[in-house]
Specification:
Blueprint lengths: L1 H11 L16 E3 H8 L3 H10 L5 E3 L3 E5 H10 L9
Antiparallel strand pairs: 1-3, 2-3
């Protein structure tokens, strides 16, 4: 089991950036409501951008969507440009 943990840490850690608030520093993904709060927009705005393909998300189970940390960092660094669907 430690070998698996070492592999995950060595694979994921280099891709984790320090752009996110400290409360999220050990997370690989964030939930939609967390990203909305961080960016100061509604959950609906995040879902709309996910559905339009402007924000990458991972679907877990039947309905749960999470956003990879690297995508959240991109949104923080580049800003959340409205998708063509919302423009």
């Amino acid at each position: 089991m430690p070998d698996i943990l070492e592999h995950v840490e060595s694979t994921v850690q280099p891709h984790i950036s320090d752009d996110l608030p400290p409360a999220y520093s050990n997370r690989i993904t964030l939930r939609v409501h967390e990203v909305a709060e961080m960016l100061g927009v509604s959950k609906g705005a995040i879902y709309k951008e996910i559905n339009a393909g402007a924000i990458q998300a991972v679907i877990i189970g039947e309905r749960t969507k999470v956003i990879p940390r690297r995508e959240v960092s991109r949104l923080i660094n580049d800003g959340m440009a409205p998708s063509e669907a919302t423009a």
